[in-house]
# Entry
Amino acid sequence: MPPPADIPVLRMEGVRKRFRAADGRDVEILRGIDLTLPRGAYAVVTGPSGSGKTTFLMVAGLLLPPDAGTFRFDGRDVTALPDRARTDLRKTAVGTVFQKFCLIPGRSALANVELRFRYLSDPPADIRARSLAALDRVGLADKTRQPARLLSAGEMQRVAIARAIVHPPTLLLADEPTGNLDPASAARIMDLFAALNRAGTTLLLVTHHPAWTAPASALRLTLANGLLSPTPTL
Ligand SMILES: Nc1ncnc2c1ncn2[C@@H]1O[C@H](COP(=O)(O)OP(=O)(O)OP(=O)(O)O)[C@@H](O)[C@H]1O
Ligand SMILES: [Mg+2]
# Structure
């Protein structure tokens, strides 16, 4: 049974994350993140390079465990979930567009999208049809057989987007998803995200261009000094 609509998809309180730097010292990148994302929210995060936006998305997307604080995902306490259980939850509930795409270079665009289903049990014919439809939605219907290594950066980015949306996630995370796209392709992707959001997907986006890319109603956040706060309006 799906969780009730009034349970937030994501609820973080005082979430912290640190890394061991090359010189052996611990550096705290996230220093107390508080964020509640209601179901169906559209949130946009900006912030300086190196401020921890990707790290924050990794924690929100259940790829990295927080070091401190509390984190509820879809009503479930995932703060200290064992790796295996966190991975299980992630593969059904989270779609991620990675800043570095994370495609398999020697596999086709289609095979890369189909990888989304690797640990799920959907019927193969269904997987093929849905993957082709997702590639069509990002404007790559003519590149489905092309190995990922022979795609342009913008095409790779769109394969990564197709892979993230092909199995509609509870939470869609996208890290600079239009960073390599020309204005027309970027606008098409943002229209696609808006349509997914209208259909109920909760969206958390990192972008340097929040003003023209996100709907006016989006929740705008800035990450700086390890803290997330509402972006001041100009
Ligand atoms: N696994 C890691 N080990 C050590 N340091 C890390 C690790 N991952 C990230 N960092 C450091 O954490 C800081 C934040 O990195 P992050 O990638 O989250 O920044 P960002 O805001 O996404 O930057 P950009 O806008 O350039 O993508 C950086 O200084 C980075 O070097
Ligand atoms: Mg980043």
Q: What stands out?
A: Residues 43 and 69 are 21 Å apart (CA to CA).
